[in-house]
Structure formats: structure tokens, C-alpha cells
Amino acid sequence: MIIRRTLFNANLADNFGGAIAQSEASDVTVFDSTFSVNESGGSGGAVALVGSPNANLQIYNTTIAQNTSNVDGGGVFVFFNNAPANERNTVKIRNTMLVGNFAPESSELHFTGETFAGNISLDHNLLGSGRVTYGSTTNTLKFLPVSITNSRILTSDFEDVPDQSSAC
Amino acid sequence: MLRQQISYIKNIGYKVMFVNLALGYMSAVSAANIFVDALPDQPGCDLVEAIIAANNNAAVGGCSAGSGEEDTIIFESFFDEYTISEPFSIDTSRGANATPLITSKIKVVGSSAAPLMKLTRVGVNSRLFDVTSDGDLTLENLLIENWRQFNNSTFQLAPVALFESRDGLKSTIRSFAITKRNLVVPFMLTVVV
What we know:
Chain A has 168 residues and is mainly beta. Chain A has strands spanning 2-9, 12-13, 20-22, 27-31, 34-36, 39-40, 47-49, 56-60, 63-65, 68-69, 76-79, 90-94, 97-99, 109-112, 119-123, 126-127, 132-134, 146-149, 152-153. Residues 16-28 and 164-193 of chain B have low confidence and may be disordered.
């Protein structure tokens, strides 16, 4: 699936993905789009990748803001399963704003089962206060398999703080 | 000399015929543009019929036939907003879908005077697009708003969802995400925690 120059606004799902859900081996690539005010009763306020293996999510030049999950991953939720190494899910997010989203756990971006990730690459993004968490660990940067370069980490009041990518 | 000329003309004729046949074949298999010019249940080509035409490579209603290649569904430029009020299908597992399952390669393009053409819902809660493993969907220049999927199916996935070809979710989907919501898990979901 390719999504280009599209706005997802005020959509709702009770399980996964307020706007988009990947529930099988598939490629979803998003360019130049906006996800706003979408809501999920489960994981992934805007986007949820819940299929495995061989599911790949790429997001470029996109704004993901003010979406809500009632569980985890207010902006984006990604699930990784224990698949053979060459079949594991991958995620690439670049030049994207993930800010002002809400969830009880991981308000912006949530990975589950990340030790089974094929590849995670987050580059040149603006990440909001909830940023990325592992499993049930909230607001802790532990990006063992994750590459984060030149991403700005924002505080909850959107005040810039020093880039924390070196903590990786 | 005359025989040579006849042979030459025949040869040219065969070549022209071959080129015509080749061009005809190419046009038959090349991607098709299907123009949506009507709201649902109105005379003309509506979005539901356009998807069926693209899936089945056949003319449906007022829509031209799709092809075996990626078909492009284009909204006529006079649409700033396209509203769907009735679901195309309701399934206890997949939920209500406003449009047919996407089972082939389809591109949907908003082509309005406005920056983005709005695809919106009124009435029954439903999902906009449901893509099977046989399908592939590209969306461009659209505003997708107010689609809702809840309380009408076992799996209430997103307004734009990629399901597997059979009903339900794969066993690899984590179960605890569902049990967190205290929902009934009807069958085989592998615990991954």
C-alpha cells in the first residue's frame, strides 16, 4: 500500500489503528501526508502494524499529531514477532513529526517485541514528549536495535531539549 | 518483377497487421483509468462500481472495465467531497465495509479543484477500504475523514486496513493487546509476551 499526499482526519477504530492497520505481511509506505485527531480504542492512535512476519512500514515527510490510543502508541504502534531473521518486520520513519499524540503508554511511538525487529530506523524526525518506549517501560530510551540520528526530542511543552540520540 | 512487388506488398501487409495486433494486445493489458462521476446509487460510475470494475477487469454499471494491471480510479474534478452513507457489506468478523474488498492493484486519486478531495462517511459506522493479501492499494490527494469501525465486528481494525485473505487476524497478532481491552478472543492467538 502506498499513501501519498493524503490527510487522515478524525477516524476511529476500536481495536488497532485509528487510521491504518496492517494485519498481515505487507508493505505500507506513506509520503507527504498528515494523520490528525484519529483515535484507536486499542493500540496505534493513527497507524498500527500488527501483522508478522514480513510486514514493513515506511513513513516519510509526514505529520502525525493529536492522535489518541487508549492503550499504547498514540501516534504509531509496531509489533515485532519472533520470526526468522530475514522475515522480521521493519520500520523506517524519516523527516516526520510525531508530536502531541496521546496514549497511557508511549504517547508517540510504541514498539512491542522489538528484540525481534528486522530493522528500525528513525532519522531526522521531530519526536514528542512520549517518544519511543519498549514494552511496558515508559519514557525510557533503550534503543538497542534502533538507529536514531539527528532526531530532535521535544519536551511535553514543546520546548527544545538537547538531542538525546547519543543516549542510544 | 510483378511477383516481387506483390511479395513485397504482402510482406509489408503482414508487418502492419502484426503491429496492429501487438498494439491491440498492449492496449488490452495496459492499466485502465476509471472515472468516478456519480455518488453511490446515482446514474453513472460510483466508487463501489469502480472498485468492482477494477477487481474484475470488467465494465460495471457506468464504469469502464479495469485491466490486469494497476487500475487508477479517478474522481471527476467537480467532486470536492464524496460521501458514502450505506455500507457495501457487513461481516461479523471483518465488520462493515463501505466499499468492496480490494483484491487487485488499484490506485484511488482525488482530482478536485480543492487541494484534497474529501472521502467521508455518514450513517452506519464502516471502514472505507479493506485490502486483502491479493490486493494492493495506493491513495493520493485525498482527505479521509470520519470513518469509524467499532461495535459491529470481532476485529474492529482501522478505517483503512490490510487484512489477510481469510477472515480474522493471523495467529501472530499479540493477544495481550486484545485482552487489555477485555475483549473475547475467539480463536488461536499466540501469546508473545
